[in-house]
Amino acid sequence: MASNYAVRVHQFSTRLHKAFQLKPRAAFTCSVGSRAEQKIVAYGLDGTVQIWDPYTQMREAGLARAELGIDYAEDMAQVSSNILACVPKIVSGDTHISSAADIVFIGLNLPLGGRQSNAAMEAQPWVQSPHVGQISVVSGMSCSPRGHSDKALFLTGGAKDKDVYMWSVEIHGTRIMSTSATQKMMAGHTARITALCHEPICNRALAGSANGRVSVNDIASGRLVTSGAHLSKCAIGSVTLSPTNANILMASSASKSEQVRIYDLRQGISCSKSAITLGIDTPRCQSRYSRSAWHPDGGLVMYPFRNGTSESPEDGLVAIWDTRYARCDVEGPQLHSPHNETIWSICFADARGPGRPTTMVTASSDHCMGFSTFAT
User: Which residues contact 10 (CB under 8 A, 6 or more apart)?
Assistant: First the structure.
């Protein structure tokens, strides 16, 4: 194959660790404390929220379902250096589960240097939401102050009202003290919001919905920057920006094909304007809960595929495209199988010196967390 073609063979080394009693919902990377130590936050349908060190591959802290006060987390994001935001999912009549919270904040008190002693997490239910009805998704904002700040900024999307809001909250240590302001985005969605992200260059909110539409709003004014484009006939699963260029957007969907579209935001977003369209024809639709990811180098794109006709070993696949090379949209991706059951999310921890290589973290229906290092 010519040297400028898309497929590069990567050699993987993967270790699996049992983490959940039921299926996971997702895992994501967060930077904790004044030293911005990278941790993995994982949460599942068993109602747990867990903090993992991606380099030692050890669980450092966690909250059980009763401590969290909800059945399980529908979505989560980091909103400050020591605070996570959790969207509650209430499905039972358990008297130990409080259904009053619109959102649950989780304060993190994690010792530096990976020490597990005295690690603590504290849940804080919150009821002052600007939404009408349940929140469906949350996203931190990259301009949100880090370190010893008294303010945090984040975005939420609604399941019932289909609206998008920016929140500004006052914090003290690891606790939210008050909501100081909210700003509604005039996004015009007609289906539940399923994906959010913040674009820091122009300070814009990007929102995807269950009917395949993506909107772009100016956060300061709330006005719609684009009219909104239906990028897919299926639900948008994630909208994420390249870690090396915040103008480059990846939008993934639950389609049977063309699951990933990549856009240059400077040129607008629509089905006809996608810079790259990636996908594999599959016998069934993907899930809107599948979370794709960029590699930290900004070139590799990873998507978790369900390839079988039902839950099977064919589902534990990660498709890998290298978008820096020609024909990546027509050459088949490399397929890696770290699990034997459906992978729901992929995230990365950056290389941080000797003994801390770039690590791909996967969460799967086999109830395990997978930690993979790889090289060409």
Answer: 320, 334, 336, 374, 375, 376
Nearest to 259 by CA among 284, 227, 232, 297: 232
Query: Cβ contacts of residue 182 below 8 Å, gap of 6+?
Result: 130, 165, 166, 167, 168
Residue 116 one-letter amino acid: Q
- Tens digit of each residue's pLDDT (9 = 90 or more) over 250-292: 999 888 887 898 988 888 777 666 778 888 887 777 888 888 9
C-alpha atoms less than 13 angstroms from C-alpha of 70 in its C-beta half-sphere: 26
DSSP assigned state of 266: G
N residues, the chain: 376
pTM over 0.70: yes
What is the C-alpha to C-alpha distance for residues 277 and 250, in angstroms, rounded to an integer? 10
In whole angstroms, what is the distance from residue 292 CA to residue 300 CA? 11
Residue 215: which of 237, 234, 233, 231 has the closest Cα? 231
> Which tokens go with 50?
């867990």
